[in-house]
Structure formats: structure tokens, C-alpha cells
Design a protein that fits this description.
Elements (H helix, E strand, L loop, with lengths): L8 H12 L2 H13 L6 H26 L3 H5 L4 H35 L8 H9 L14 H18 L3 H27 L4 H9 L9 H15 L5 H6 L9 H33 L3 H4 L3 H15 L3 H39 L3 H16 L7 H31 L2 H11 L6 H32 L9 H24 L3 H9 L1
Bound molecules: 4-fluoro-L-phenylalanine.
The site of 4-fluoro-L-phenylalanine (PFF) has 16 residues, from helix 1, helix 2, helix 10 and helix 15.
Keywords: Membrane, Transmembrane, Transmembrane helix, Transport
Pfam family, one: SNF
InterPro entries: Na/ntran_symport, SNS_sf
């Protein structure tokens, strides 16, 4: 059967941008930037983008384009170890979508509650109490939270409807899910900037603090942010580019994806911090006091800021809907790209029917995600996210750049790219991919592992306050099982391989 193809180049770029621009851009980037040196954070951010993000993105596009298969099948061209790497990346994406979908579930819930600004007065109590019904610790699951469960079903149905017919339906959906959030964030940013105190928010977001650059954590934060937000190191970009026509451009597509992705991150920062500036001014606090990390920012602090806006009930609802529709449309194409990466990997290796594989992955994904829809689910989400993100992805990116780029002969990679692309890469690309990137990424990886272990040992990291047993299960065992599954999958014989060995 001939391979599915993107309808045209624009659709491919939109799908790649859709995968990249997601929740990571909307709430992680602004906060990470603000607390890691503000404007000065842009230095490590761009160093990470240029030395790791773009080279790995181009490399993943090359791998998918050249070998025309999901990550494991493509990387199997470099032997069993290559295929293990491909499965590892794939299973990491699968693990991520099982909790990413739960965050999307909260977004669905908040869309509903935006009509009444139901969190008004106690946004923290509303999120942790009424929505999550959070228990006292990870070992107390406490049954399902019904609102989360309903949101979760809606999320998986949306994922199914989008990808049931492969890249063709994806192509129709990404036109909306990429353009709309950008428009909404732009409107939120512009209206946010008119508010009193907005500039204090923006100052907090972007005022450079160069002294932070000597702290290694700032650098690991930048690399982590680039990998996650650009969706590289997950095999998803390999799967997506495997549906490209053999004659498609690579460099230009990669640059467009990377630029658009960073653009969405900056824009989200303006939307969020202008409003938080207003909130700080109207409650007599500082922006630093009101802003928090991750989940709390999007589901507690920002909603609270909305409930304080001087626009009346209808205006607040419009603002809230704008924000949550932006999150929904940003997140959904990232979520289904993670499923696509997994089902492409499985159907390519085992020669399974694509549609049935997708349904299978969605069903299993839904069942696993139920863990996080329990009342203790947030704890598990937090732990799994921390370890898969901190180590899993950097490891894949590092090996891709160190080993795969070498096996493909760095110079040949460049020639391959230049043959099909409008923008020609010079010798600098060989030096970057061959030397600079692996060295820098290697250092970052070692330092990330070192700081994380030291933090846990010295208890200077709040993760240390989780029961050790939960950290071992959600961190170490989860990573080991992912790795073990990757090794096992390599030894499953595919139909083609069986036929070949029978012939021989
Ligand atoms: N890049 C997405 C975000 O920033 O939210 C998350 C993501 C999607 C990561 C797809 C990895 C991936 F393969």
C-alpha cells in the first residue's frame, strides 16, 4: 500500500508548528523566562535553539524524509541500537500524551466554567478542590474526579476525530488549530497591554538579569524548554516528515517551524504577563508575588487575574474563553501529534492497518491516562513529567546528534539536505552538527543529571518532599520500563522480517 502524503507543503509546516506550539509555549515559556533571568534568558534560549533545537529538528526531518518510516523503522537502518532509540523516543511520546491529555481535560472543564467565571473569589480552591479534588499525597488515589473524567473523554474523542483518517484529516484541522490560538493570544496580548500595571508585568517578564547566566540551571532550563517546545527528541517530527514527498524542502520547513514556535512563546508571554501586571497592581502586590509555575499559572493565577478585570461579567467571560480556546487549540494538535508518532511507529514496523493501530493507541492511551484523572493524579502527573522531560528527551536528542548524525556521515547529511532544500547549508552546519552540538548537549545532559541528583540528595528541590517510593515508581521505574519496552519491541519480528528469514 502506498504511503499517505501531506496534501501540500503548507499543511506539513502547519502540522509541525501545531505539534511544536503547545501548552509548553503558553505557560511554561513565559514563566521559565521570567524566573531564569528575564531578557537575559534569551541568550541561553537562542544558544539552545541554534546549537540543539534547529540541528536536531533538521536531522529528524532528514531521517523521516530519507527513510520514509516512523522513528523505529527509520532508525533501524542504523542497526538494533538505532531501533531501540526509535522506540524509546516513541514510548516517551506515548507516556507524555497520557498526561498531556489530562491537562487538556482541565482545559475543557475551564471552557465550560468560563461562562460563569466559576472560580471567582477562590481560584486555588476551585482548581485543586472543585476540579481536581486533590488528595493528600500520591498514594491516595481516591477514585476519579468526575469533571476531569468528562474532560478526558472529550479530549480523546477530539484526538480520535482528528487523526482517524491519518494525515488528510490532520491537514484540515491544523489550519484552525494553528491560526486561531495565535490570533487569540495576539488579541489577549494587545488588550492586556492596555491595562494599568501591564508594563510592570512585562518588565518582570523581560528585564534582563545577567547574573543568572552563571547558574547552570538556567542553561538546562533553556535546553529543556527548547526540546519540549519544539517537539524534538520524541520521534514525532520523524513520523511527520515520513509523510513528505521525496522532493520536499527540509531547511526552510525547519526554520519556519522553529521561528513560528518561538514566536508563539513570546506572544504568550506578553498575553500572560500584561494581565498579571494588572493583577499585581490591583491587589497591591508585586508581579513576582502573584506569578507561579506551570499548572498553577494557567489554572489558578491567570483565571484569577481574569476575574479581576474591569470589563464586567461578559467581558471577563470573553477573556476567559479566549484564553482557554487558545490553550485548547494550542494543545490539541500537540496531543494528536504524540499519538500519530506512536501509531506511525507501530503500523510501520508491524505492517498493521493504520486506522486500527491509531484506534488501538488511543484506547490504550485513554486507559493509562485514567491514572491521572484520579484525585491523586496531579502528583503522578507532576512526577512523571519531571523525569521524562528532564532526562528522557535530552538523552534521545543527544544520541541522535552524537551517533546517528555520525553514522549518516555529517557531511552527507548536509549534502542530502542541500539537494532538496531552497536554503543551502554551508560548512558551518557540518561543524555545528559534528562537533559543537554534541559537545554542548553532552555537557548539559551531565549537568542536568548532576543537579537533579544533588537537589534530591540535599532536599533543595521540592520533588524531594514526595515519598521516595513515588519518585522511584514515577521516575526511575517509569524510565526503566520505557527503556525495557523499547528493547523488547526491537526483538518482535515484523511480517517482512519473518518472510525474509524464511526465504533465507
Ligand atoms: N511541543 C509541545 C508543547 O510545547 O506543548 C509538546 C510536545 C508535543 C512535545 C509533541 C513533544 C511532542 F512530540
Amino acid at each position: 500500500m502506498s504511503r499517505d502524503r501531506w496534501n501540500n507543503r503548507l499543511v506539513f509546516v502547519l502540522a509541525a508548528v501545531g505539534s511544536a506550539a503547545g501548552l509548553g509555549n503558553a505557560w511554561c515559556f513565559p514563566y521559565v523566562c521570567a524566573t531564569n533571568g528575564g531578557g537575559a534568558f534569551l541568550i541561553p534560549y537562542f544558544v539552545a535553539l541554534i546549537t540543539a533545537g534547529i540541528p536536531v529538528l533538521i536531522l529528524e526531518f532528514v531521517i523521516g524524509h530519507k527513510f520514509q518510516g516512523g522513528a523505529p523503522t527509520s532508525l533501524a537502518n542504523f542497526g538494533k541500537a538505532g531501533e531501540i532509540l526509535g522506540w524509546f523516543a516513541t514510548f516517551i511520546s506515548f507516556v507524555i500524551v497520557t498526561y498531556y491529555s489530562v491537562i487538556m481535560a482541565w482545559v475543557f472543564d475551564y471552557l465550560w466554567y468560563s461562562f460563569s467565571i466559576a472560580w471567582e473569589g477562590d481560584s486555588g480552591g476551585f482548581f485543586f478542590g472543585s476540579i481536581l479534588k486533590l488528595t493528600d499525597g500520591p498514594w491516595e488515589l481516591g477514585g476519579f474526579s468526575i469533571p476531569v473524567l468528562i474532560g478526558l473523554v472529550l479530549t480523546w474523542i477530539s484526538i480520535y476525530l482528528t487523526i482517524k483518517d491519518g494525515v488528510h484529516t490532520v491537514g484540515k484541522v491544523v489550519k484552525w488549530t494553528v491560526g486561531l490560538p495565535v490570533l487569540l493570544l495576539f488579541i489577549l496580548a494587545v488588550s492586556g497591554m492596555t491595562l494599568e500595571g501591564a508594563m510592570d508585568g512585562i518588565n518582570y517578564y523581560l528585564t534582563p538579569d545577567f547574573s543568572k547566566l552563571t547558574d547552570f540551571k538556567v542553561w538546562t532550563a533553556a535546553f529543556g524548554q527548547i526540546f519540549f517546545s519544539l517537539s524534538v527528541g520524541f520521534g514525532v517530527m520523524i513520523a511527520y516528515s515520513s509523510y513528505l514527498d521525496k522532493k520536499s524542502d527540509i531547511t526552510n520547513n525547519a526554520f519556519m517551524t522553529a521561528l513560528a514556535n518561538s514566536g508563539v512563546s513570546f506572544l504568550a508571554g506578553f498575553a500572560i504577563f500584561s494581565t498579571l501586571g494588572y493583577m499585581a497592581a490591583s491587589t497591591g502586590s508585586t508581579v513576582a508575588e502573584v506569578s507561579t509555575a506551570g499548572v498553577g499559572l494557567a489554572f489558578v493565577v491567570y483565571p484569577e487575574a481574569i476575574s479581576l478585570l474591569p470589563f464586567g461579567a461578559i467581558g471577563q467571560t470573553i477573556f476567559a474563553l479566549g484564553f482557554f480556546i487558545a490553550l485548547l487549540t494550542l494543545g490539541i494538535d500537540s496531543a494528536f501529534s504524540l499519538v500519530e508518532g506512536t501509531s506511525t511507529a507501530i503500523s510501520d514496523k508491524f505492517d498493521f492497518n493504520r486506522k486500527k493501530t491509531t484506534v488501538g493507541v488511543i484506547l490504550i492511551g485513554f486507559v493509562v491516562s485514567l491514572v491521572y484523572a484520579t484525585k491523586g493524579g496531579l502528583y503522578w502527573l507532576d512526577i512523571v513529567d519531571r523525569y521524562i522531560n528532564n532526562f528522557g528527551i535530552l538523552v534521545v536528542g543527544f544520541i541522535e546528534i552524537l551517533v546517528i548524525a555520525r553514522l549518516m556521515k555529517v557531511n552527507n547529511v548536509r549534502e542530502y539536505i542541500n539537494e532538496v532544500s531552497d536554503i543551502k547549508l554551508g560548512k558551518w552546519y557540518t561543524i555545528l552538527l559534528g562537533i559543537a552540538s554534541p559537545v554542548i548537549l553532552g555537557i548539559v545532559l551531565v549537568m542536568t543529571a548532576y543537579t537533579e541528583i544533588m537537589d534530591l540528595v540535599n532536599k533543595t528541590n521540592y520533588y524531594a518532599s514526595y515519598p521516595t517510593s513515588a519518585l522511584i515508581l514515577g521516575g526511575l521505574i517509569m524510565l526503566l520500563v520505557t527503556l525495557l519496552a523499547s528493547v523488547i519491541f526491537v526483538f518482535f519480528k515484523t511480517k517482512n522480517a519473518k518472510e525474509n528469514s524464511e526465504e533465507a
